[in-house]
Amino acid sequence: MLLVVGFIAVDLFVDYRDGIAHPVAEVAEVAGLSVGTTVGDLAPDFTGTTLDGETIRLGDLRGKVVLVNDFASWCGPCLAETPHLVEVFNTNAEDVVFIGLNLQESEDAVVTYRDDFAVTYPLVLDPDGRLIDIYKPIGLPTSWFIDPDGVVRYVHVGPMTAGMIQRALDEVAAGREPDLATLTG
Hints:
- The chain is an alpha/beta fold.
- It has a single domain, classed as 3-Layer(aba) Sandwich (Glutaredoxin).
- It contains 7 helices and 7 strands.
- The protein has helices at residues 2-17, 22-31, 76-92, 107-117, 130-134, 162-173, 180-184, and strands at 47-50, 55-57, 65-71, 96-102, 123-125, 142-146, 152-157.
- A 7-stranded mixed beta sheet has the order 2-1-5-4-3-6-7, covered by helices on one side.
- The chain starts with a helix and ends with a helix.
């Protein structure tokens, strides 16, 4: 009996350490969804600390459209995309949640990035790479558009313009999965 309790405790610790919340897995199971980062998956829950010291948990954002954007301050395409993200966020801040997920950089580098681009959406630090291990970007930047039910509706690798970001957000808010052809056309 003690051995079984020990295995359960280790399993819960590993899930906690990896940012996996059992309630998300339970919701996914009931809805018949997989937990993952591809279109149609229930987005993996995570908890992170923002540059401002706030705690943000993806699961707490249900009911809103969420954009999770993996970036690094040394990434040229990320730097090209950031003014577009800021522009769209500033015009949609009441309706959409943006989360910038930094790729294991120092706090100083992220502060400089935030200040250089006047970023006002939360920037989550990931010094140990735990969150990047959950949201495995194919390249930088990578953006996940998540619907109000927590389902990934669009994944974009590479920089986006303000128009592309806005169209993707509008499609997700309307309950549709964006198509790259409609975003760029």
